[in-house]
Amino acid sequence: YGKNTIKFLRLHKEGKKHFVKEVEVCAHLRLTSPQEYLEGNNSLVIPTDTIKNIVLVLAKKNGIPSLEQFAIDICSHFMTTFCQVAYVKTYVQEVPWQRLHEDGVPHIHSFICVPDGIRFCEAEQCRNGPLVVFAGIKDLKLMKTTQSGFEGFCKNEHTTLPERHDRILCGELFCKWSYGECKDFDFNCIWYKIRECILEAFAGPPDCGEYSPSYQKTINSIQMLVLSRVSQVQVIEAVLNNTFYNVVDMKNLGLNNDKEVLVPVEAPYGSCACTLGRKKFFEA
């Protein structure tokens, strides 16, 4: 049991310069005894209102140096404070506030919410077990208008989709990865490095791009680049929900529409998913 959707803004001030972290936290516990379920005995139950207050107090005392560290702090607090807690899991996601810039100059106390992907993390721990930390990005909308196709696929009497060698590749990406043994990681630096890998693998070189023969290959390219450059990542899961665009037929309007006006196909939409990890992880 636990408390979901604990939302708050943590404001940190360094002189005149302000820093913000707005987050949503879910914290769940499993106790050493199920007596509250089986017998109605609540003597071991930590009220969910108490769970909420603990999260807020930890934010006040420790701040949020990174989402991952904050999730670790929450897990650690419940494990060290309550002997009846057998398992704790914490999920934290961030509202994407970015500092405003005016003529290239960063503003000291003004921010803009930029929907370029939502950062999240999870931390979980069993008593006498290892701390496990995951991180990720979701709702990251990506598009490239060429250098994508889909050809040579399986066909039968039900196939109506034409082959395409030049199409728009667009989708909403969910990506989640797990770390190995968490030491003194700079979680913020790692997260931004992974985000750069995702964008680079999706788009290719800025002057020419890189051809994608399928959404599946694009997902694999993202995962391979992350694993090759970020040694702390052991396993990475990626899901790409596709958005297709159809060219509007304007012949009846006396116009030749050369892929200049398109309409999105909202539903149904395709989805591709893959989990990729280091061999030593799967052998373990």
Automatic annotation (TrEMBL):
Reaction(s) catalysed (UniProt annotation): urate + O2 + H2O = 5-hydroxyisourate + H2O2
Record GO biological process: purine nucleobase catabolic process; urate catabolic process
Top-level taxon of the source organism: Eukaryota
Binding site for urate: 48-49, 150, 167, 216, 242
GO cellular component: peroxisome
A Pfam family of this chain: Uricase
Keywords in alphabetical order: Oxidoreductase, Peroxisome, Purine metabolism
Pathway where it operates: Purine metabolism; urate degradation; (S)-allantoin from urate: step 1/3
Residues engaged in binding 5-hydroxyisourate: 48-49, 150, 167, 216, 242
Compartmental location: Peroxisome
GO molecular function: urate oxidase activity
EC number in record: 1.7.3.3
Residues at which O2 binds: 48, 242
UniProt entry tagged with the keyword Oxidoreductase: yes
Record's function text: Catalyzes the oxidation of uric acid to 5-hydroxyisourate, which is further processed to form (S)-allantoin.
NCBIfam families according to UniProt: urate_oxi
Similarity-based family: Belongs to the uricase family.
Name the record gives this protein: Uricase
